[in-house]
Amino acid sequence: MKNFSEHQRLWFYRLLTLAVTGLLAHLLAVWAAPRLIMQVLMHGPAAQKMNMHNQAAFPEAVTAKSRSVVMPSPDMLYSVCAYDLREGPVRVRAAPALTNYWSVALYAANSDNFFVRNDRQAQGRPVDLWLVAPGGDPQQKPPPAGAEVVVSPSSTGFLLMRVLTTDYQAEKAVVEPARRTLQCTQG
């Protein structure tokens, strides 16, 4: 630094400050933004209104006027559950019995998708999951017979079930009962 002039030293520290600030802002956004989004999704006003803590909730069908999600898909019906494994495992069951597409997806508290089961993978069988906490002992409370043990990477997270419908009004009598087979209960 002794070979730098006062002017060069000033610019060096400005650039260093800018680089460190940019790096910190980037890391904060990459780490914090997904977690903040998930917290609002799992505990915000909409979640409280639907009362989806360790139980299934069934939002209204999406229409052209729906805007709680950017660019919502009117071809999908959704069922949701915000799970909390701190009090023990959560059992997830669904038996949509549909010939068209459906899926059950699990998301960790940082928004990472860590598990998906869809109609093709299920091959007509119902979904029966025993969701346990990270580092938790799945045998602490034995899983129910036939349930698949799934270890969540976080103690809280979000479940999203999707059911495809090409004409909701015409298919309502079939797709509504199918999506409402979702159960999310504290084990």
In short:
With 187 residues, the chain is an alpha+beta fold. Helix content is 32%, strand content 27%.
Question: Could you spell the SSE succession in H and E letters?
Answer: HHEEEEHEEEHE
**Biggest sheet, spatial arrangement of strands:** 1-7-3-4
Radius of gyration: 22 Å
Mean pLDDT: 87
Shape: elongated
Classify the helix fraction into a percent range: 25-40%
Which sheet architecture does the biggest sheet show? 4 strands, antiparallel
What is the β-strand count? 8
Please, how many domains? 2
What is the CATH homology-level superfamily of the largest domain?
A: Domain of unknown function DUF1254
**Span of the ends, CA to CA:** 64 Å
Strand content: 25-35%
Question: Could you list some keywords that capture this structure?
Answer:
187 residues, alpha+beta, Immunoglobulin-like, four-stranded antiparallel beta sheet, four-stranded mixed beta sheet, 27% strand, elongated
